[in-house]
Give the backbone structure.
Amino acid sequence: MKDKVRNILLAGVGGQGTLLASELLAEALLLAGYDVKKSEIHGMSQRGGSVTSHVRYGSKVLSPLIHEGQADILFGFELLETYRYLPMLRLGGTVLVNTQRILPAPVAVGAADYPQGLEEKLRSACPDTDFIDGLSLAHQSGLSRTVNIVLLGALSAALDMPTALWRDVITEKVPQQFLQENLLAFQLGRDGRASSKETVFQGG
Amino acid sequence: MPETMPNVLMSGNEAIARGAYEAGVKVASAYPGTPSTEILETLVNYPAVDASWAPNEKVALEVGIGASFAGVRALVTMKHVGVNVAADPLFTLSYIGVRGGLVLACADDPEMHSSQNEQDSRNYAKFAKVPMFEPADSEEARAYTRLAFELSEQFDTPVMLRSNTRISHGKSVVRPQQPVSGLPTPGILRDPAKMVMLPANARNRHPLVEERTTALEAWACEQPFNRIEAGSGEIGVITAGIAYQYARQLMPEAHILKLGMVYPLPKQLIRDFAGRCKTVYVIEELDPFIEEQVKAMGIQVIGKERIPTCGELTPGRLEQALRGSRTEAAFTHDETLPGRPPNMCAGCSHRGVFFTLKRLGAFVTGDIGCYTLGFLPPLSAMDTCVCMGAGISNATGMIKALPPQERNQVVGVMGDSTFLHTGINSLIDMAYNGGLGTVVLLDNRVTAMTGRQENPGSGYTLAGVESPPIDLQALCRVLGVKHVEVIDPYDLAQTEQILRREMERDELSVVIARRPCMLDRRLGPQPTPALAVIDDLCGGCKVCLKIGCPALSWQQDGTPTKAHIDSQLCSGCGLCRQLCPHDAIGVHHER
């Protein structure tokens, strides 16, 4: 099943660790035998701005950018940013979203409102939407900065690749002194997604 | 038998560094610039390469030329606008040629993700009459860089390699090769007819440059990097670089002439290709660079009347251009979402300076760096931004032109790295010609915007070796500036008092706002306790929000509404605490 190119779009806020997450994702896909391309913007957008990373994989990938409306998975690190990039998702695609809200500057200074009801909007647009509380799972790992790894763990549950492969990639790329916390964060995310499938429609 | 190495994922920048290492590069020099910066940051980790940050791109290229004169291969890297700064040596180097191979890698930024213009560097190749490669992915970036050094020596020419944001910052699979061996030993070699470009010698060199271009043009027709991918229809596409990937994906049936070298063009190959197709498209990002040359050959093509000239080419934009419509998105928004512009970090030392300049009604001639974000609301305290170094010289020109009552409002602002890049020349001019301006140097001891690179003021080199940090105060004084003041931008009262005094003064003064970058690895501030809003005291006046700190927000859901400080983000810099008229900000005790 490696002949069709699959598209994962990461969307988040500069400083959330989306670049490391997309890095680990791309490395894992390479290790699994796929051709992989990923594309993102560094510089200005890292300073608390809106950040996306395009990851494409298959037997042969041409464009590094996902065509609008063709993302198979919208992998969101923040609610508003996930909703912002919803038009990138294909019909029948999957949304995996962190329930965290990070206020953009115009909202923080009271010049704009953070949109209400984004969970419901995402769910009604895309029935296959999973929510994950990345921040509280990261706290459980003992290192609150591991939100990105928790989310990667949650994403990994949707991709058909062995856990050992993911653990190898994390072990190679993450600083050794925080390795245990990161491995735990990954597992919490991977397990958490399975359980969120059952609870998501109860409260959100 | 060379041992085979495993495939690896690399960014285009990492792949360019790999290619340079494989080609046996010994000297590399650059000034950081998005999206080119990581080339040298990667290359410095390879063995036996002397990679360093130069204060600007012109110096970087001249260092590279010197290394080539001595007989080693040299790499010079920069962003597209950096080539403007390096253009002076580049054009004459084209006449001189090389001894050791010399490659100039430049990274364009279509869409201006992190740039002030989106100039198309391919024009420089034609203008300076040097060959240029353009890779379409990381593996080509590696292979073309390596090949560029061989070509440089084979044809006695500097070679340019053009990347862009998508290539430089995108990752794809690379097949690393073993480095070359047996390169010549360096040593002094006098060759004045070639190396001394005074008129008599240069007149002899120019015809050689023209012959070289003709020879390269013929040679390029036979090379595998200019390849035809046969399709099944009657449509042909000439394309290069990242545009190739989009064209190939959207037009699977088309015959494609994929150019690896975009200057000089392989004219005979193009003629043969066009002759076999009923309709020929030229699909390229930014300027009609290939298109105009192909049309000048008398070949009819479809190009910029369909393909956008402005901005990045994306799969969606190319689809729109080719088919007149886009695939309809399954989901659309019917509301306007609040934007998320970038912002200075919590605790950034630039914030207090811009807050104060705004308060004093300054007209700020600004410059390029993190501090360009001082333009954005709520600080909204930058009135001009042109290019590296212009912050001071723009102030000089304005003050010359303005009526006396407005002159004192003009303040030139730039960072330490920008000052050492080209701003120093502007200050020399201001001091030399009796300028009366106020100059603020935001001295955070690092080249912050591009990712905190070392600079001549930081005390370290790219390789991490200690070096004497430039004393900016002493430097300004020896240039002839009488009034040089150092302020702590975390101290708002002092910052305002000194800026007000120096703006009122009818003489040139330089104010150095000194605080290390919040993110700096070595010099960053000692951990200070985070601050918190004391809810009972908060009067809801929103004064603290005027500094635009990302750690501060307005809690709309509470009653009554209050300001709130995110203790995870707060650096404890204390700016908001100094502004609060109700003493409602104190130390957060839970951290």
Notes: Chain A touches chain B through 59 residues (CB under 8 Å). The radius of gyration of chain A is 16 Å. The CA atoms of residues 160 and 177 of chain A lie 29 Å apart.
